[in-house]
Amino acid sequence: AQSVTQLDSHVSVSEGTPVLLRCNYSSSYSPSLFWYVQHPNKGLQLLLKYTSAATLVKGINGFEAEFKKSETSFHLTKPSAHMSDAAEYFCVVNIDTGRRALTFGSGTRLQVQP
Amino acid sequence: DSGVTQTPKHLITATGQRVTLRCSPRSGDLSVYWYQQSLDQGLQFLIQYYNGEERAKGNILERFSAQQFPDLHSELNLSSLELGDSALYFCASSVAGRYNQPQHFGDGTRLSIL
């Protein structure tokens, strides 16, 4: 079985300050992990993915995430928040079984204050 | 733009009715997934098709069905609609449906049941 826990349902930061969105996963197999972002009334956009290569993964728009197997974590970070980063962020896991569907975390809503 | 096209964007109908949601995957993608996003259930996987064949089933109700056509577009059919079926329905596609391949999402169809 696989599961994902996003530790914060809401995160609020000031523009220009660092962003940290936390994600822990549970998987019996080596997982593939993804972060997606959803802006209001839009679909999900892939930010980055981890698929057993480098543990530090760089994504679009200055985001990056570090895979830590010992902590079963895949936290998303950005050095400096921008107003346009305000959105819902989903941590997602998939494992190599017959079922190819993604398992989504419950989401973290990021608010960026001016 | 993800390259995944969903129509219609909005659908308003009444209980007991039947609707069809359409999805065109990205060019070259063979696998199509359907997801339901609601406030109380979050994002849930419904069903996956690969090159015209059903590959995996998730939390899809018996009132719902889907198919993928030879040109790789897919349709999700929802019948005997209930108020609780009101949600955002997403289609996603990936190249070959492997667990470590990212899925690319359309902008969704918002279904409102009156």
Describe this protein with a few key phrases.
heterodimer; A: 114 residues; 4-stranded antiparallel beta sheet; globular; B: 114 residues; mainly beta; 11 strands; 53% strand
Architecture overview:
- The complex is a heterodimer of chains A (114) and B (114).
- Chain A is mainly β.
- Chain A is 0% helix and 56% strand.
- Chain A contains no helices and 12 strands.
- In chain A, strands 2, 5, 6, 10, 11 and 12 form a 6-stranded mixed β-sheet that branches. In chain A, strands 3-9-8-7 form a 4-stranded antiparallel β-sheet, with no helix packed on it. In chain A, strands 1-4 form a two-stranded antiparallel ribbon.
- The radius of gyration of chain A is 14 Å and the shape is globular.
- The mean pLDDT of chain A is 90.
- Chain B is an all-beta fold and 114 residues long.
- Helices cover 0% and strands 53% of the residues of chain B.
- In chain B, the strands form 2 sheets. In chain B, strands 2, 4, 5, 6, 9, 10 and 11 form a 7-stranded mixed β-sheet that branches.
- In chain B, β4 and β5 form a beta hairpin.
- The interface between A and B is medium-sized, with 26 and 26 residues.
